Design the sequence.
């Protein structure tokens, strides 16, 4: 089993925590937009409380370990690895609880190029433990507004993990997909399941809009988030999101493998 100390060292060496690639400027911009309730940064969340930029800086300092100084406006953001480790333990506990009751689960990512392997391993382990890994709305069209205008994508599943891809992509089921923060894919998936009276998830696992969109609709949701994604941490603070793990969500995909081993061991899901 990967020890806590070994994982802490890996988090720092891979820059999943400690000084990360996300800049302070990027994070502060996200906090400003969130305070203004810009839907691009809310990513499906409808906050109950009023969040000023200063409030968000304090929250992110507490949850991630970024600087609490509002005058710190440049440089690289920092994630406290102790925050990451504590959240990974809580994340694993939620997976273990789902596995113990053989709960139906839905997994989805807006970072398919980076995080697909992480979620696919969870899907495989949960399935082996008796959970039904749901794949509603397979192939369904999803229209998402991007900085380039309205784009049409299709909902696909790879190894039990939902993602969106451009229409006409060869070989459905291949690992390529589109980076998106939108909550529309998870809303589409959940609506499709409800329309046919199908099984709804008792746990949604993912990132970006997958977590916020599901949590806002009342589903238990857990996931990963970077320092420039305040919506997930606000959701956790307000109670609509169960667990958020702070880490850099855009490093090399193989750097997440030790996290996979750690989480599955903690959840007693290792095969």
Sequence:
């Amino acid at each position: 089993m990967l020890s806590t100390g070994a994982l802490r060292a890996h988090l720092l060496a891979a820059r999943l925590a400690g000084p990360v690639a996300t800049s302070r400027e990027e994070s502060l911009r996200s906090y400003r937009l969130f305070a203004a309730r810009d839907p691009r940064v809310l990513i499906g969340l409808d906050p109950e409380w009023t969040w000023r930029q200063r409030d968000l800086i304090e929250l992110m300092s507490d949850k991630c370990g970024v600087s609490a100084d509002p005058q710190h406006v440049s440089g690289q953001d920092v994630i406290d690895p102790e925050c990451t480790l504590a959240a990974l333990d809580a994340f694993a506990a939620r997976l273990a609880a789902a596995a113990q009751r053989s709960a139906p689960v839905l997994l989805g990512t807006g970072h398919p190029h980076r995080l697909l392997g992480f979620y696919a391993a969870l899907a495989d382990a949960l399935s082996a433990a008796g959970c039904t890994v749901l794949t509603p709305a397979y192939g369904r069209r999803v229209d998402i507004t991007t900085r380039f205008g309205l784009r049409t994508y299709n909902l696909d599943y790879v190894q039990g993990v939902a993602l969106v891809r451009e229409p006409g992509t060869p070989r459905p089921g291949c690992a390529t997909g589109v980076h998106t923060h939108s909550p529309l894919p998870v809303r589409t998936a959940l609506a499709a399941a409800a329309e046919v009276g199908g099984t709804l998830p008792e746990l949604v696992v993912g990132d970006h809009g997958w977590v916020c969109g599901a949590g806002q609709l009342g589903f238990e949701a857990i996931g990963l988030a970077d320092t420039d994604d305040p919506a997930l941490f606000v959701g956790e603070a307000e109670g609509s999101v169960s667990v958020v793990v702070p880490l850099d969500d855009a490093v090399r995909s193989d750097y997440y493998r030790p996290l996979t081993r750690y989480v599955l061991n903690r959840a007693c899901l290792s095969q």
Notes: The first strand starts at residue 18 and ends at 23. The chain has a mean pLDDT of 95. The two ends are 12 Å apart (CA to CA).
